[in-house]
Amino acid sequence: MAHYALMNQNNVVLQVITGRNEDEVVDGITDWEAHYAEVTGLKCKRTSYNTNSGRHALGGTPYRITFAAIGLVYDENLDGFIHQQPFPSWILDTTTGSWSAPTPSPDNDLPYTWNEKNLSWEL
């Protein structure tokens, strides 16, 4: 069983479905991404249930950065699923698919929030 992300025209994931394994041939169909795209009218990319933040849970090769979920974005340049950028100044780690502020959050238990205008953490 394989999983596939169905996306809108902006590559935002709308739904994740369970489908045929990519090596299965049924009624002459061999390209399941193309098949599910045709059937649904949405873009479709396979995703790996065992991949999260650039790591494979079973020690295998990570596939498309992280398992697709509703709201994630498929980045064509990275060939992977990432979260949407929370602020324009934040920097993407292309290995894990996670975003980081340009300055690290203070290392204490106080509730800081990011101020994009000042590019700083504030209480």
Summarize the structure.
With 123 residues, the protein is mostly beta strands. 7% of the residues lie in helices and 33% in strands.
What does this structure look like?
With 123 residues, the chain is mostly beta strands. The chain folds into two domains: 1-84, no CATH class; 87-123, no CATH class. Helix content is 7%, strand content 33%. It is built from one helix and eleven strands. Strands 2-1-3 form a three-stranded antiparallel β-sheet, with helices on one face. A two-stranded antiparallel sheet has the order 4-5. The mean pLDDT is 95.
| Overall SS class | mainly beta
Low-confidence stretches: none
Task: Count structural domains.
Answer: 2
| Overall shape | elongated
Strand order of the largest sheet: 2-1-3
Tell me, rounded to a whole number, the average pLDDT.
Answer: 95
SSE string: EEHEEEEEEEEE
What's the end-to-end separation, in Å? 47 Å
* Number of helical elements: 1
Helix amount, in percent? under 10%
Strand content: 25-35%
Count the beta strands. 11
* Gyration radius, rounded: 18 Å
The biggest beta sheet reads:
3 strands, antiparallel
